[in-house]
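Model it.
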Amino acid sequence: PRGLGEALASEIAAPTVGGTLLAVHPSGVRFGGPSLAAGYAAVLWARTAIRVLVEVGPPLDVSRVRGRLSDTVYEWVRDGAAVAPAADAATAGAGGWPTLVPRGTTFAVDARVGGIAGAPGGGVGLTRAVGLAVKDAVCDALVGGGLPKPDRPPGGYASAGVPLFVAASGDAVTLYRDLVGGGLHKRGSRA
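Modeled.
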């Protein structure tokens, strides 16, 4: 939530999480670690975090997009650029879609679009279109690679084996692996 960036930064830098702070924002932090263990420690120990997201590849620069944003996002995801391995061995998408969404695993996509270049304000329609483009592209990439199309998770995003989160803002679209699926603020709540 807005205004808790500094408090979250303290939690991430604490020995229980052991994350290396890269940036502090009003509503969150960007941090790194030697492996996904720091991310899972943040899930366990950070009380002010709502989500813990891991980038699966480099962001898409949309500053020069001339067509529909959803079409550009679809191609970026389907062709594997969204999960291109980085120099960091802890990258969640290293190995491509078959590694990130293995056979028999469900996945779901949540999207947030706002203030994107060429589409100020985003809107519900654009958010839905970008989320659907990511879902379709992942399915098409998996089927094109000889894997079966994954089933939908029975309980939606929160129950997906691989929850993916796509955020579009400014000149960039970034794809993340959500380490929890549901909001961390719901920890301990009854279903």
